[in-house]
Amino acid sequence: MDKKSLILVGAPMDSGKRRQGCRMGPDAYRVAGLGQALRDLGHEVDDVGDTVPDPVEIPSHEHLYALPECVGWTQALGRAAQNSAVRGMPIFMGGDHALSMGTVSGMAAYASKIGRPLFVLWLDAHSDFHTPDSTSSGNLHGTPVAYFTGQSGFEAFPAPAVPVPTDRVGMIGLRSVDLEERTILEQARAMLADMRTIDEHGIKAPLIAFLDKVRTANGILHVSLDVDFLDPAIAPAVGTTVPGGATEREAHLVMELLHESGLVCSLDLVELNPFLDERGRTAKLMVDLAASLMGRRIFDRPTRSF
């Protein structure tokens, strides 16, 4: 197994939605042993601590929640992504999913500098393709894919230096997507695998097809793993639960296949709300999944105690 230099970047962003708690996510991953689990696999691990948002002097918005803070986080995490990527593989410990506006745009800029296209695998119950103009809730954690693919409506934000074309985005685990989001995504040729597709064909088929596309383009892959990709019965620590998510075994298979592909350049771990967890079970599962992505084999998994 190739040993990597892994950069743990805390992203305690809690501005993308009104329900608070995700700011505790980075420390929950640390307590659950993320760094040690990765070191045990032989990787070098550097925890660089928590990122802080840039101060941004723009007015608050009557509808969009915490707009200045979200802009500040996007700027800071975009820099953190580029700075970390030149040293190794960044793992962003979130934090709500609005953090991906910064992490993905930063990784896209890095990919451009090394002359390779960035692809994004979105493991989530939601497509997060709303814009500030279309979101009914005003919660910006539902907008990151629209932002980093260069959709309109984000004038308050720094424009992505290198937008990710929508046909380089693959989404697996979808089961709560608004009609207008789905229509645009389908027209833009994003790879969409909802849970019915997974029920009928398994989770491996759409993933392998997407990885083949990345490999053919000589691309690199950013993976964004939302807790609500998983079924809430096994991962309760999220404020946006949708029944019928991926099983633990399906999720580990995805991670194992991603590891074997050798294409992953960066990882988001998002939407963990420890306040909603049960004795740390969700945090421990997310740590186990990250370990599978980084090479832990099925028969090396530790017995879990709660």
Walk me through the topology:
Elements: E1 5-11, H1 25-31, H2 34-40, E2 44-50, H3 67-85, E3 89-94, H4 100-113, E4 118-123, H5 144-148, E5 169-174, H6 179-187, E6 191-194, H7 195-201, H8 204-216, E7 220-226, H9 248-261, E8 264-270, H10 281-293
Parallel strand pairs: 1-2, 1-3, 3-8, 4-5, 4-7, 5-6, 7-8
3D architecture notes:
With 306 residues, the chain is of the alpha/beta class. It has a single domain (5-300), classed as Arginase, Chain A (3-Layer(aba) Sandwich). 35% of the residues lie in helices and 16% in strands. The protein is built from ten helices and eight strands. The chain has helices at residues 25-31, 34-40, 67-85, 100-113, 144-148, 179-187, 195-201, 204-216, 248-261, 281-293, and strands spanning 5-11, 44-50, 89-94, 118-123, 169-174, 191-194, 220-226, 264-270. It has an eight-stranded parallel beta sheet with strand order 2-1-3-8-7-4-5-6, with helices on both faces. Strand 7 (220-226), helix 9 (248-261) and strand 8 (264-270) form a beta-alpha-beta unit. Helix 3 runs parallel beside helix 4, helix 8 (204-216) packs parallel to helix 9 (248-261) and helix 9 packs parallel to helix 10 (281-293). The longest helix has 19 residues, at 67-85.
pLDDT < 50 stretches = none
Portion of residues in beta strands equals 15-25%
Distance between the termini: 30 Å
Q: Using the alpha-carbon principal axes, give the shape.
A: globular
The string of secondary-structure elements, in order, is: EHHEHEHEHEHEHHEHEH
